[in-house]
Amino acid sequence: MKNTIVTLQKRKQNRQKITMLTAYDYTTAKLMDESGVDCLLVGDSLGMVMLGYDSTVSVTMDDMIHHSKAVARAARSAFVVTDLPFMSYHTSVYDAVLNAGRLIKEGQAQAVKLEGGQAFCEHIKMITQASIPVVAHIGLMPQSVLALGGYKVQGKDYQEAKNIVLDALAVEQAGAVAILLECVPADLAKIISELVSIPTIGIGAGVNCDGQVLVYQDMLSMYDGISSKFVKSFGSIGDQMKQAFKQYCQEVNKQQFPEAIHEFAIDNDIIEKLKLEFTVNKKG
Ligand code: KIV
Q1: 51, 56, 77, 228: most buried by Cβ count inside 10 Å?
Q2: Which tens digits make up the pLDDT trace of 164-223?
Q3: How many CB atoms lie within 10 A of CB 242?
Q4: Per residue in 152-173, is it b (16+ CB within 10 Å) or e — as a string?
Q5: Given the CA of residue 113, which atom of ligand 1 is nearest to it?
Q6: CA gap 26, 153 in Å, rounded
């Protein structure tokens, strides 16, 4: 059964946690879907982990659509959320609706995510009015890295914390179906999760959110870019991949791979005939 916004809402009501991981390609998304991950986020973090940029600001709509399509094809049950990238919704409400529509129609997403609280309520309202579910990303908003001067925990003083609570209440009021809370103190995330009736999904926001999300290259120790206190390694897949790549190189160089079992056979008569026809100059 395909997960929908109703599945997520019911999870919150029944106090069952929601699992979300980022996904950017068909093969990995299929493995996650088959493992029972509830939601796949085609995050603009693909700018770093897939494209090698040092932030998300260069990611384009075409990048997002390309990866979203691949993930959606793999997601038999997981709910697919795709990020609106930097500058695809900031310029106007019109652009926001248009680009959200592209992520749904071309990217085959089931919902879009945008970074912003009170300042983006009109955008959320109008996208929602176009029958497109919106996940609002508040707390640390990585698309604002240039304005923030780096990636820092948000909401540590009273005014900042209050503003994040107001963001959460405002996006819920505007029609958001879920809130992604990034890098905020755990007790603040707890207050927000109790205040709003829509699910909260946390990253660096403690255990009391209604769900959790991680960038999969982080949780599998595949990416050695920026690392955060909130990331837990669930496997040394990066090391395992490197080991396998090294072994492949060694075996090819030593002619240990391919072996006979990897080869296709041909009738010896045909080979002899070919040899006669195309005499190999053995003298060189
Ligand atoms: O783009 C992304 O990967 C995100 C993370 C916070 C999960 O939004």
Answers
A1: 56
A2: 999 999 999 999 999 999 999 999 999 999 999 999 999 999 999 999 999 999 999 999
A3: 12
A4: ebbbeeeeebebbbebbebbbe
A5: 8
A6: 32
The response to whether residue 45 sits with its C-beta less than 6 Å from ligand 1 reads: yes
Whether residue 284 has pLDDT greater than 50: no
> d(Cα 167, Cα 13) in Å, to the nearest integer?
22
- Give residue-wise pLDDT tens across range 31-68: 999 999 999 999 999 999 999 999 999 999 999 999 99
Q: Which fold has domain 5-235?
A: TIM Barrel (3.20.20)
Protein residue with least CA distance to atom 4, ligand 1: 43
| Range of lowest pLDDT (65-69, 106-110, 192-196, 278-282) | 278-282
For residue 49, the CA-to-ligand 1 centroid distance in Å is: 11
Q: How far apart are CA 265 and CA 227, in angstroms?
A: 50
Residue found under tokens 């391919």? 258
Q: Which of 53, 55, 85 has its CA nearest to residue 68?
A: 85
Residues labelled catalytic: 182
Whether 182 lines ligand 1, by a CB cut-off of 6 Å, is: yes
Q: Would you say the CB of residue 183 lies under 6 angstroms from ligand 1? A: no
Structure tokens of 252?
Answer: 């090819």
78 close to ligand 1 (CB < 6 Angstrom):
no
Asked if 40 and 75 count as a contact pair (C-beta separation under 8 A), the reply is: yes
Q: Is 181 in the pocket of ligand 1 (CB under 6 A)?
A: no
Q: Which of these, 12, 20, 15, lies nearest to 37 by C-alpha position?
A: 20
Quick check: pTM over 0.85?
yes
Q: Write the CB contacts of 149 (distance below 8 Å, at least 6 apart in sequence).
A: none
pLDDT at 280: 59
Residue nearest to atom 8 of ligand 1 (CA): 43
Domain boundaries, the chain: 5-235, 241-283
Q: Which residue type occupies 125?
A: K
